[in-house]
User: Fold these one by one.
Assistant:
Number 1:
Amino acid sequence: MSSAPKAPMKALTLRLQDELFAVEAGSVREILDLVPITEVPNAPEFVAGLINVRGRVVPLADLRVMFGMDRPEPNQDTRIVVMEIDIDGEPTIAGILADKVHDVTDIEAASIEDAPKVGMRWRPEFIKGIGKRNGGFIIIPNLGRIFETQGARSAHLAASEERSAS
Amino acid sequence: MSFPDPTETFRQEARELLEQLELGLLDLEQNPANDDLINSTFRALHTIKGSGAMFGFTAVAAFVHEFETAFDQVRKGQSPATPALIGVALDAKDHIHKLIEEPDAPQTGGQAILEALRIVIAGGTGADIVLDEAPAPAASIAEAAPVATGEQRWRIRFRLPGDSLVYGTNPLLLLDEIRALGPCTVVALTDTIPSLDVIDPEVPYIGWQIDMVADDPREAIDDVFLFLKDGMELSVEPLAEEAAAPASEPVPEGAAAVQLPVAVAIKAAAEPAPRAKVAKVADKEPAPAASSSMRVDAERLDELMDRVGELVIAQARLTQIANMSQDGNLKTIAEELERLSSGLRDTTMGIRMVPIGTLFGRFRRLIHDLSRDLGKEIEFVTTGEDTELDKTMIERLADPLVHLIRNSVDHGLESADKRLAAGKEAKGTVRLSAVYAGAEVKISVTDDGAGLNAERIRAKAEENGIITPEQKLTEQELNHLIFAPGFSTAKEVTSLSGRGVGMDVVKRTIDGLRGSIDVTTKAGQGSTMTLRLPLTLAIIDGMLVRVGNGRYTIPLAAVEECVELPDGVEANARGRNFLDIRGSLVPFLRMREVFGTKAPIEPHQKVVIVSSGEGRVGLVVDQIIGNNQTVIKQLSKLHSGIKSFSGATILGDGTVALILDTAHLVAFGQTYVDQGRAA
């Protein structure tokens, strides 16, 4: 991600446990209070729920699963961020559970750095970059990779293994 | 609003007409003396010619005109509709199709087809005609038709239908067209013009009377009014000599002397023609009971379906609120709305349903061509044409069925000598049938050929590396190998099938439609390929059940009955997963186990028996909540891998419920049966 765009990133900041995350504000459709969640039996834990967003059935994702965080019960700050996410190249509406939603802000492109390859608790491919604001870090997740379905992910891995082998 | 491209409209219409033409020709082959068929074929040709010329497809119009001229001999009964003729006519139809679809591409072969057509009509076989061959002597037969006895005086009277002006007809242009046929005198008949206060400016009150000198103009006049025939009055009569001099011609009662400045040339008719009345065209050919219809964009239908879906959800919420309230008026209106929306749902879905016969019709041509190319005599039998399926489903079924039929004819049916040697009729039979089976439609292609050759399939699959020689397969698994990619048992690759693509595509397409495919075969007696397809309706009736804290919808059409789970069975939880339903053993699945529900087990478990095809399975649930209308929403890619669910729906209280995929669950339950047998 060295070719980060020059223009500041317009981002929605949200909190998952103790970490601040930033997602592209342009892809956010709406932010909802907690609604009844329908559990999907046998679904991956990461997307174990479905919600009704204005008459559409929308999958609800819990990024905390992918980042190996604790998952306490929702409280009054819990929100659902409804976003358009590319899943295997198909734009899909999905909801993301957030422990708290903060604000929309600009993150200076210059302040965004690549995720370090080592010394991180999380899988590096899930992180697009790390920005800085007010002396703290903001994690910019790579939603495309996080939401990749199993089939696409293994194809992806095979391809990257091939690359590294050659 | 943008208007649709008129050329595209013509193309669409022409495609349908060509299809009709093709079916007509194929019917005619079976039934060569049927005048109705000949006439309808002729009509289709005529309409293509007319509208083709109107939209600037001159090549089409010219070609069809020649085709029509030749075919006229058949209509007049001067030439029989022989199979050779039908063959050439089908080629001609294909040529027209090409002309319409690719008007700019250079088209050759048209002349050769016409030549062949003329020769066939003259009694030849037409088989040996090739492009650029010298015109056969019989070519002039079309022109040899008896020609009218020269110019003569005719009187034409017509009144336009009341709505013709609304639809853009300009009577003056019609008059111009008639005038182009020969010198004539035009008189307006004003006797039916009402008084000014009741006049409707959009209604053509004026009739027209035209006296003209020409060769028999009846056909030409028919052409002029081609698009107005229905509902108009038209008479074309030859004028007797005694009524000759136009000056003394009494103007009809009440007709004003609106003489149009037309060059009048009078030539006394050579001989008085009998006053043969051609009569009102409208009465001449009663159109086959064609219900009026209109074209609608499929996208708009989808949109309508979405709206109805939303309405149904809103209605379900209202019903729920009304049920909680004490307000009698609210309850009444909620019930009323429920009735209305359910009616609206059925109607909307009905719009999208198309009888599968529209699809079956196309295959008759396929069989005809296959029969000719392979030299196999084939009888093609279709049943269940009026089975209705969703339109998109029908469109996507066309290709798989073509493959299956080709396969049956090419690989299934033996050659005539082999059949005779095996003690069968020389003529092979291919059956195509469609029938409802619960919430599914079953479409099967059956042939009475040699059946699948298990050894050859096995050998081929081993050769292609699909299976290993050690692998043990059941008969069913073996038969399914033909759907494996890269599989083909045909010893020679023919132009039709045998390239090893096709059957795997069939399987993929059917899977994509959430259907399944099944093969049964009997050596020496033929094989049957059966497709099972859901009706894929966007809205279905569902039965809402509860398992633990989750609510799920089961398509009601798949539900056979509901029973209580006997206590004894419950105690005996391990091992015996069968219920005795009136003497037959039905496997059952504890949905709480399937779903991994953690909530404590409840007393009085219910079993919903669902069926798919021949299979049945009982689904054990905690509670049966009731019936509801279910709008099917597709699951996103994130959940499409979970096979137990075919979709989701939104309940009256706004929460989401998953729809159980009964076909999958039944198949899952059947594995219990197989295990039970093995044990």
Number 2:
Amino acid sequence: MRLKIAIGFALVSAAAFVTTSCLSPGKVRTPTSAEYSDQQVQTLLQDEFSKDGYDHSLKRDFGGGKISDDQAVQELAGRTIWFKSAPNERHHTYIFPQKVGVGIDWNQAMDADLHDQRFQTWGLINDPDCCTPGVNCEQKNMRYKGRAVTKVDTYGWDYCRGDEDLLASLMNKTPYRDPACDDPIIKAADGLDSKVRENRCELAFGTSTGAVGYRKYPNPKFNAARWAKVGGYKGYSEQMIKEGINISIQPPFRVAMACASCHAAFDPLNPPKDLNNPSWANIKGETGNQYLNVSKLMANGMKGSAIETQLFTHVRPGVVDTSAVPHDFINNPGTMNAIINFPVRPTFNENVVRWFQVDSCNLSDLINCQKVAYKNEAGQVAGYKFWHREQRQMQVPHILKGGEDSVGFDLAVQRVYVNIGMCSEQCWSNHLTNLRDIDSTSRSYGESPFNIAQCREQCASFRANEDRVGNIFSYLASRRPTDLKNGLQSVQYQGTDQPVVPQSPNKALVDAKFKEFLEGRYGAGSLERGRQIFANNCAQCHSSQNNNSKENLSANENNFANVNFFATKTLDTGEVIRADWLGNDKSTPVAEVGTYKCRALHTNHKLGQVWQDFSSSTYKNLPSTTEDSFEKPVTGGPGYYRNISLLNVWAHAPFMHNNGIGPEICGNVEPKHQVLTTSVEGRQLSGTKYKCDLNYDPSVMGRLKLYELSMDELLTPENARRKKIVRIDEAIKFPLGFNDMYLEFPPGIPLNTIANFDLKAFLYDFTYAASYLDSNNQATFDQFWAKKFADNPAKAKELGAAVQTIVNYFKDVNGVLSFIRQGKAQSIESLKVIAKYYRTCDAKDEVENAGHNFKTDLSAADKNSLKAFMATF
Amino acid sequence: MINLKYIILASLLSSPTFAAYEFKVVSRPVGTTALTFMKNANVDEKYYNQLIDYAQLEKMAPLSTAALANVQPDDLRSLTIEEFNQLYARLSAGPMPLGDYSGYILQKPPVFNAIKKRILKQASLFPGFTSAMQVFTSTLGRSPEDALFEFVWKGKRFFPKDNLDQIETRTSFNLVSAGASKFTPDWISNKIPAGLGKSFIWAADKTSFLGLPMHVYCGISQVDTRRESIITDGSYGDDFSSYLKYTDEIVTRKGLNITEEYRMVRPGLYIGKAYSNKLFLFNVALEISGDTPSNQTVGSCFDGKTTR
């Protein structure tokens, strides 16, 4: 076995992630891998780095000596997992349809005939490791059983590396050996030390579907005869959307999502010339895909009138509501932001209760001590680990928009894996809210806390990923910004629209040529003027260099005036990176930021909710910053936005957590294929006429243009901005249990008036209070509502009267039907009152691009100066 | 077996203000045996978040095969819905049922009466349903609601198939056990409106007719996803060649969209739940009418362990 070696990136234990300062050099070692010899490792690395179009940023040489082979292996292993590991295929193609009752029509995106529309329709990136049968498989030398592959062989999808084995398993009903079992890089990384690890097959790589990060697996329940009878994918999809999914028919492939499914994007510095046929050199795993319409993809198997379709699909490209499946009754999508320069990301000393790996603990303490068996590929126990749950002070990053996922990097990664379906059956789905469950004594009426210990014990994929999260961390910690300067060829700075291959990233961040370009575009002297404006007005939140909070400063004091935002830091590896994270990641009250508030009210990390064990006690004890609709303070953590990093802001527009400030962008496809996003003042949304401001343009100059237009909107006073409001585009028919009864919401109403309604809280109160009326106990009924409001009898009376009106309709079936079908004025008014009080998020006028109303009074020249300076970020 | 009287729900260290529920293991007789359950020691379980998590339950109060060996369907009537759920969550799917099973309706949710009326209203939209029900109910002396729910879940026949995803079950309307032995095939054919009764498939002894075809497969439980259940799914009953629109459509996606899920208590006895459009209707049990056949398919359902 290889000796256990002391390189920081190799630390897999939880404590290793408390601080990014653990990043350390690859030390010289004498490895003795059971899996690979040193020579084999070097050969492996040479092979990896010589692959055509591979991500060469992983092969780094910092002048002072390149990274060690060990570190390279770990980073490559992390990259491999990031792009390929997706042990959630049962969730997306099997559990979700059965639990929720609606399917995902993967064929709408993965049909090989739609290869050249995949990016424009869905924002998906075509996988360079695949070919399209009948188009380019022969050119790519990808053959099937020694002959040209056809779409019949692939069930109409692209043909990807490893598919010959996958298709053989599918056709012959033989066990599928997952490529993760034999992946040389994972094997090499596993061999770096002698730690016990769960069977690597459980990482579940499968093969590509044709889109980067979307993986497929043979469906063991596939029945070729039935598949043929339903008409293959086309017939299956058509039936699914028209009549609902037929669970008794199982498609040939189960589809899953790896991290790269959302985070991989075209390299901002080196986008492909042909957007439909990129090479790996054009793809980066860390950038965040700002063109991705993943929410629409996840809901494309439902009718437009399904409440899930309307609730979950109207989000901007690059944005996803990750609390849609673990549903919190708040419509709060957020961006897939870039993961870059982690070594300088701020961390916070917080009070954390979590599980730590220990040498041993007292097993009679069932609550806090756990001994877990780890198995090898043969299913035999390879060893045990002890885990102990305790409270500690830790340095933790604030990962999510509101500062959640604050118990360490490792658990943040694990939570995301679970949130996209890993271990769904064993430990997640039982804790989720079933939208249609109306019985408050039923477990699926609401959320319950995910149990980390149970999942670790009962789900092998959880263990397999946890054992290798150190590799993921190594990979992510190696990711660096894509500075604009490096996307502009020196001789072409002025006015070019031609993207070019980046130059060396280690030169000074601003050189003469770059300055010439910026000041030519934004005005003479704009860089220095922009720096001053930024230092005086923005750096308090958007710099990590000076830790003094503005609360400690006097009114006229500015301790950023002399800060060098271009300062560099030399890592132990010899690598020089920008020292400033350009964001302090501290939590700011949402009212102070003023941006669309719903994401800040995210509740899933509160006590009693599904992700309670993924937020620190410090988070849970944050002071309240806002009230709910019952005039009670919102406590337990929500109510804040962290001050995000502006690194490479030039490449990541539009702005804000919801991509709300800036142009609306869409793919260059028929309107029916576009993601319906918002209605914009003076240009009402319509299913057939809507056109967005800009089509997708991932070129350097395309991103820069998007940045400039977004800056224009950001620096416009919020009252003068055009107002963006998401509206539903098709009537929602919400079935009340039976086919002939619907609650119907007309098209055109703001989506969030429905999406931010606490249905379950209302149902509970409604049934509880109604029981008093049933027993003619009006006084108790009135008291029930009075208690809802501490000191506001008028509101209590208003809500009580509204509920009573509805109760009267619900006394018998005919009343319910007349209530629903006739929509009498009295009932509509009562519903509006109820909707007002059971709002989970009462954002001002539902305008999604409001807020961040800072320095909107700058002169035009100063605004340009700020643009110039921030373009260097 | 962990012999703890009390446990505390995990993960509460982080807040002194959060209600830390204690759950106690209780044992109570069910028929001739004693089964264990877990109850909230602090509050009367009236809200979803006051209930024990199934994984915790199974860890703290596992069920033994021996304890279930003699359980009879009627024994289960004394369980509360929560106790039934706790029993169900600790079971596995077991082998695919095969042959004839008698059906039992067990616990119904408090809102069942309201649900029943609404279902009947929807069922009445189907051609001939109301007149057919009137014929049955006038003879049986029961309300239409009772006729629909008591009569329909009287039994099932599971047909053997080569492919597991092609298994078909049909509701077995056993007229004798329903106290309606006068309903012979000829009588039905004469009395039931055209297009309805004449299409029934009769069992060989003419005492039962078979209708409402449903798919049977291993699938995801609405109650507890940790292990698969045996699902009977009427939504696409029209897949089957013997499907008869007038009689069978009522359980499909165009009608009540009926699904059921089952797990095995002991060989020959399954318990589960029936749903309409995923709305819980009532708990059910299926007990094999004769001997348990030897050719049941074992182990086809996901048992909670990842296998790749």
Number 3:
Amino acid sequence: MAFKIIEGCVNCWACEPLCPSQAIALAASHFLIDARKCTECEGEFAEPQCASICPVEGVILDGLGVPVNPPGSLTGIPPERLAAAMAEIQAR
Amino acid sequence: MELKVQSPGGCASSGCGSSGDRLAYLPEAIRAKVNNHPCFSEDAHHHYARMHVAVAPACNIQCHYCNRKYDCSNESRPGVVSELLTPDQAVKKVLAVAANIPQMTVLGIAGPGDPLANPERTLETFRQLSEKAPDIKLCVSTNGLALPSVVEELCKHNIEHVTITINCVDPDVGAKIYPWIFWNNRRIKGRRAAEILIEQQQKGLEMLVARGVLVKVNSVLIPGVNEEHLKEVSRVVKAKGAFLHNVMPLIAEAEHGTFYGLMGQRGPTSEELQTLQDACAGDMAMMRHCRQCRADAVGMLGEDRGHEFTLDKIEQMDIDYAAAMTRRAEVHATIEANRAAQRQHSGETFVSLASLKRGLPRKPEPRPVLMAVATTGGGVINQHFGHAREFLVYEASSQDVRFIGARKVDLYCSGGDSCGEAETKLQKTIRALAGCEVVLCAKIGYEPWGQLEAAGIAPNGEHAMEPIEEAIAAVYRELEESGRLEPSVAEPRRLSA
């Protein structure tokens, strides 16, 4: 199984130096994971490194195609609370 | 290290201290360190330039005011760059800029991510530069998370200036600013993330101070989140020996794509910013001349000549750095001679302003006046009104002339045929000067002259090429003598920028 970086990657470079398998490289569009090299960090780290530092929700998929960082997981605000949080922030 | 700090009110004016030298209160060794550092000394920023090289893309935390999509050539704000450089390319660029802009004394690494989250790239750049360009000060700016682990290494490369962005010392406040950090190979979220970040920042600050490194603390003022709390931050970092506190306004626009921008968090008004800066000034020296520059800015603060030094252009340049260093030393000597002359001159004329008051019968204090200045640097009034992209705002009172801050305006005169829009842009400039009663510049056109007067701002071109604070003191004296400074309110108060 391997992780995948999809469109939406902002090319911030954070993941590239962390990969224990050197599976991540900059490509024409954005960074890409070489599926042949990716081990999902198994045996290396408790958590997959690229997905643990990626600042953008939804752009890294696990082996089953599921986003590792789903909407709301990185901002700390689940989608159903978004409108309320926005109102709160705008009242500042 | 215990630094002597000015009495309440801080000191951003040449009127406090015995001469025009606002660094006079510092120990000699520290004065020498900041004397030509534009970001650590307000006076130095009139004379010396800085540059940032964008070698550090990765970041180990998320701040709600930052969007990690940083590649943009049109925006001017921290964290934005046009091209990412390798350490070798960065070194080449630094030597090219140093040879072409001899006033450039400081090379900083400030991103676009966190320099210390990219330790190899950052330290390799420093290692090469400390060897190849020993006359350039090296400094680094960080969020502080990785700081304790690299302090030793930084000291090895002779880094004498470090900036840490500290927005809070309370994890509950931090949780509203930092959604997560990457720490020990894991993503940590919420309050615990802020707790670790704060711990590392404070530890890093203490370690640097213990090693004699000058630390500037940057804080982003976020209304409704940390404005009251920043007073506490100021007290804490000062007690630990930070040299300078720089409170900057939050930049949050939806088009920047940041969390705060998209959520509609507002930035502070200039009045809120100044009120907080004044409140913190009782605790330590405040920086008010920060322009919140890009992570690849080149030139004097407030200007960006990065486009002159793009990778393809520096490839064409053949730099003889030994020769450049000789020329740089000459230019620096000339600058220092000018500064010394300015200091001596303004010391003589300026102190007399306050001393004249003594012995005179008590009468109501004349009110303070805000004045704007157009300058390209050198500490003198030397810019055409229509060419100014920003104005420096000073407050003149019977006690002193103090620097309040810089106000950016849209350039309304490009000297070309874009006159169709000139009027609306002039109006923008006038809006940016709100609250100022005088604008001093080298020259000014007939059209803006009339509009400024109509807006209640007196244009003044009589002090071209004169030292800024001396000219402001002279204009203030004229206003006072002509009876235009009778106090309009019961209590004279500090005006806002």
